[in-house]
């Protein structure tokens, strides 16, 4: 071939690969299976491949391959050259091509070996201990290989056997303890583990069945049962007669002590802090929920709802003050009073007149707003919106917190050309009163104007989170 070295040699050795359980063989490249003899015979590539060698190279067939050699090479002479061609000088007598023997003994593929009759049989890697399974794994032989599995109670994860936590999947009816490779079931006091090792049976039923079995062994010599509950009633609350004995049971809200007779109050409030929204109060045999002052217990007997004292007119504000309801209480707000040089426009707005020299460095207006908020509100949280009421050509607006944010619990996020949102970034615990001055700066480059307005936001944080 063009570009190849002049001494290029190609050689292929035939290997017969028996298929498991079949007598038919497969041959490697350069050989073809003779179905009559079952042997792998060489393919003459010089005859079957058009222009196997090009240029000044000639093709010489080999066992399992072929060679491309220069036509002037004195060592070889192609038997297919035109004997009447004068293009090349006649070479000396040809040297016969190397004769490589075919493989008479078949080779088995990986996982198999030859038996005494030269047949490929499976290698049992597990029996010969030639496997690579971990000590915690089980070797399982397969046709031509093996697999590594885990013992019962383990599962295979990334080549490792990990313990299965059976307790997570409810293997036991009552109490479950996970152990490596297994689990153990137990029962609550007053119950007995059944023979299946998983379910539990009431002691009274279990005792009854034991007595039934004993009756079968002594049907004529066993004495008649005495009802202890009817004769002396040893239990503090409820008595259940059983064959040959008795059991004590407690009313709802009580639990049986270790002596099996006495009932004590069950403290339901100690079970969970979520039984009541505010406070759980334990009572004899029960419990109840209570709400703080300013709240009303709802019909679900656990949730608390704010009482609107202003709406119910249950407040102590003066006639000049305004009642402002908040969660769990109310505020008596004094009337807005504008400090000099501001003048009052209405009940919640102050204006600094432009003609007053003292107003040059002051916000043009101050608008008072009030809002309430529960303690510990989740963050981040949008709590107040601010926007310009009009827009002029060439003007743009800047929003910022002018004062009251010393603890950096809030920031202003501009949401549009004329609007912004006050965002709470840190939880605020109550009770607490907060006053923020939110400033909107107006800049007009057309008329060279800069002014500002302020919203004085008063936030009343309640004591509770509801």
UniProtKB/TrEMBL annotation:
It holds the Pfam family cEGF. Transmembrane segments: none annotated. It is found in: Secreted, Extracellular space, Extracellular matrix. Its main location: secreted. The keyword Magnesium does not apply. Residues 1-23 form the signal peptide. Belongs to the fibulin family. This is Fibulin-5. It comes from Crocodylus porosus.
């Amino acid at each position: 071939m063009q570009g190849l070295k002049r001494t290029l040699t190609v050689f292929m050795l035939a290997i017969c690969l028996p298929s498991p359980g079949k007598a038919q063989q497969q041959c490697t490249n350069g050989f073809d299976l003779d179905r009559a003899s079952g042997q792998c015979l060489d393919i003459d590539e010089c005859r079957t491949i058009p222009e196997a060698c090009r240029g000044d190279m000639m093709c010489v067939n080999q066992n399992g391959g072929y060679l491309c050699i220069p036509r002037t090479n004195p060592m070889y002479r192609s038997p297919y050259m035109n004997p009447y061609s004068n293009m090349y000088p006649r070479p000396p007598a040809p040297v016969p091509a190397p004769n490589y023997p075919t493989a008479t003994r078949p080779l088995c593929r990986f996982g198999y070996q030859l038996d005494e009759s030269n047949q490929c049989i499976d290698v049992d890697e597990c029996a010969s201990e030639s496997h690579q399974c971990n000590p915690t794994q089980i070797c399982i032989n397969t046709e031509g290989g093996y697999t590594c599995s885990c013992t019962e109670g383990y599962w295979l994860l990334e080549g490792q056997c990990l313990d299965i936590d059976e307790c997570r999947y409810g293997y036991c009816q009552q109490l479950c303890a996970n152990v490596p490779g297994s689990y153990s079931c137990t029962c609550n006091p007053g119950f007995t583990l059944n023979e299946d090792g998983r379910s539990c049976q009431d002691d009274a039923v279990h005792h009854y069945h034991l007595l039934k079995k004993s009756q079968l062994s002594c049907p004529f010599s066993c004495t008649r049962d005495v009802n202890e509950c009817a004769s002396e009633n040893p239990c503090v609350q409820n008595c259940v007669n059983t064959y040959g004995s008795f059991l004590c049971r407690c009313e709802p809200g009580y639990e049986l002590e270790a002596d099996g007779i006495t009932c004590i109050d069950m403290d339901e409030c100690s079970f969970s802090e979520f039984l009541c929204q505010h406070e759980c109060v334990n009572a004899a045999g029960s419990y109840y929920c209570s709400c703080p002052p300013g709240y009303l217990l709802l019909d679900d007997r656990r949730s608390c709802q704010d009482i609107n004292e202003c709406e119910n007119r249950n407040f102590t504000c003066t006639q000049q003050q305004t009642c402002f309801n908040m969660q769990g209480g109310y505020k008596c707000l004094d009337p807005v009073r504008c400090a000099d040089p501001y003048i009052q426009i209405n009940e919640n707005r102050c204006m600094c007149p432009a003609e007053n020299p003292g107003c040059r460095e002051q916000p043009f207006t101050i608008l008072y707003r009030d809002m309430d908020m529960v303690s510990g509100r989740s963050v981040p949280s949008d709590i107040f919106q601010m926007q310009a009421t009009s827009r002029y050509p060439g003007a743009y607006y800047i929003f910022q917190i002018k004062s009251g944010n010393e603890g950096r619990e809030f920031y202003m996020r501009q949401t549009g050309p004329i609007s912004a949102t006050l965002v709470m970034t840190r939880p605020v615990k109550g009770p607490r009163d907060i006053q923020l001055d939110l400033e909107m700066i107006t800049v007009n480059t057309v008329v060279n104007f800069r002014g500002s307005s302020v919203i004085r936001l008063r936030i009343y944080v309640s004591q509770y989170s509801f």
